[in-house]
Amino acid sequence: QGFNSGESVLSWASYLAAIPALLSIIALVASYLGISVEYSGEYYFELLFWGGGHTLQFTHTLLLLVAWLWLASACGARFSYKPGLL
User: How do the domains of the chain map onto residue ranges?
Assistant: First the structure.
């Protein structure tokens, strides 16, 4: 079952971006529940957002690539690769 068009690739990649976004939320909640009350200030926020923030970077990178492909196809660019490879 391959991809027939570039639109299906873009749609699939957009749905795929939901996976690291969900993992980012899970990491944020796990960090919040695991932080001791003795931490405060900058170190508290570093512990809270470090894992979720880095995971969220994967989501943004994937969505950035999807946006580039979408803009390129909207401008009429033709890819020499099959849509399934993209």
Answer: 6-74
d(CA 12, CA 19): 12
* Cα 59-60-62 angle, rounded to 5 deg: 65
- pLDDT one digit per residue (tens) for the chain, 86 residues: 444 555 677 778 778 888 999 999 999 999 999 998 899 999 999 999 999 999 999 889 988 988 887 788 778 877 777 666 66
| CA torsion angle 17 18 22 28 (round to 10) | 50
Q: What is the pTM of this model?
A: 0.69
Residue 23's alpha-carbon distances to 28, 30, 54, 62, 77, in angstroms, are: 9, 10, 10, 14, 34
